Amino acid sequence: MTEDKSADFNNFLEQLINATARIEKHYFQQPVTGSKNLIIRERVYCYELYHQLRYSQENQKYYTDGELDKRGHPFIKGNRKPDFVVHVPGNMKNNLAVIEVKPINAQFNRIEDDLKKLKGFLEKEYYGAIMLVYGNSPKGEDKIRRIRSKIDSLSKHSECILLLWHKEPGKPAEVIKNARTA
Question: What domains can be seen in the chain, in order of their start residue?
């Protein structure tokens, strides 16, 4: 990670963590009509996170785009669509961050796929990557340890991928793995 973007990335990370603290219970788990069960919908969580991020990002030099489809991109091959990209459109040198979001109950292979996607974006001029896991479960700590271990196995890219865990609504996400503090 280069020094000139370090302050920008840390500023964005602070805004992201503050945005997570403003996400209400309704966006974590959706009530189902006629049932006492709640369901987790990643897209609902992401839309609210995007709203909270945009709300706090006035006068920024980077744009936050959600689910930006990279098909047909001259430098990024394949059908990649990250949950969020923080960048200045049209210039590969101004890519600040790429973010993937998964609920704690997601199958581990889907999380691994997202980590591979983050690694691929880091290889294409992105300064940093964030894996944001939200929700909690009885085996949440074990799942987070497995994710951290997988990130650590990504060799040279592991220092550029942060792991955040947003356990509950109304509270900020916690930094679980950060190269600058790990």
Answer: 3-177 (3.40.91)
